[in-house]
Amino acid sequence: MKIWEIPTPALILEEPVMQENRKKMAAIVEKAGVALRPHYKSHKSKQLAKMQMADGAKGLAAAKLGEAEDLVEAGISDVLIANEITQPSKIAKVAELAKQSRITVCVDQIQNVKDLSEAAQQAGSTIYVFVEYNIGQNRCGVDTFEECYTLAKAVTEAEGLVFDGIEAYAGHLAHEYDYDKRYAATMVIEDTLRALKQYLEERAIPVKEISGVSTGTVTFRAQMENMECSGTMYTEVQPGSYLFMDSAYNQVGLSFQSSLFLLASVISTKKDLVVTDAGLKTASVDMGTPVLVGYPEAKSDMSEEHISHVITDHPFHINDLVRYIPSHCCTTVNLHDRIYLVRGEDVLDVIQVDSRGKSY
Questions:
Q1: Which of helix, strand or coil describes residue 73?
Q2: Phi and psi angles of residue 221, each rounded to the nearest 5 degrees, phi first
Q3: Helix-then-strand count for the chain, H and E
Q4: pTM score, two decimals?
Q5: 331, exposed or middle or buried, with CB in 10 Å at 0-12, 13-18, 19+?
């Protein structure tokens, strides 16, 4: 199959670029001395999850229970649900999943600890637990060392649960475009986590793992020997977008390159107008509109099934193929059932987006 035979609009993945991104991430985590736990929410593909395990990942991070179920079904033996699971029916499913795979969940409430413990005992399973610490995202997570200690102690004393460490995800820094601000905030986080670990361990709570870090800050962890500390406090990192990249991440100035594109066809033209068959149903806009390759300044006027561009004296004709860089790869992938793996003009494979819509 050739690329021009793909029914558009469709996602395509440039295999050589993706391979380079994989190599770069492998070098980063090796130099940093941390484990790789890629975030499944970026690609939602069992095939790509297995590829990442083959790359040496210790396991995968899932955003939701539905994603974790698919990962366990795919044979992934170590799954972190990097979120709080509080609904009773979902907690029961977590306890059942924990009989098939090593499952870790996050907590920030004492009642959640009690509910997880009860479900684990009923199912006869063991659930691993991270206490989530708020390091600036201001979303989930406890806010003080004392709260963290109280929860960690409760987990260690709960039947069916194992306290495994801290979840500390600085998502608010992922797209901080100012390098100096991103660097300074990273150092503050490292200092905070160092002090938190010491606080817990002085109170007889061993901290085995500290998990977090996005694509936007992972490189700093490989540079720690050149910073004002001896090394990162993180034991594992959760980058997701590094495989694909997107226009939002491209503005951060990272070494990873765009491998994921939205392929579209020109369906109408006028002297200064180009209209393609992509639209809001195939490209997310939560972080801006997709970027037309070759015309980064072209404004995208989007409707459900069309993207229109005003381009003076454009060269496009009907049925010309164009490429867009998604503004946000994670939410764009969730709009598609499949991704076409390509090299040049050749389609190498069709990758299923198995967990599309698994947002529960």
A1: helix
A2: -70, -20
A3: 10, 17
A4: 0.95
A5: middle
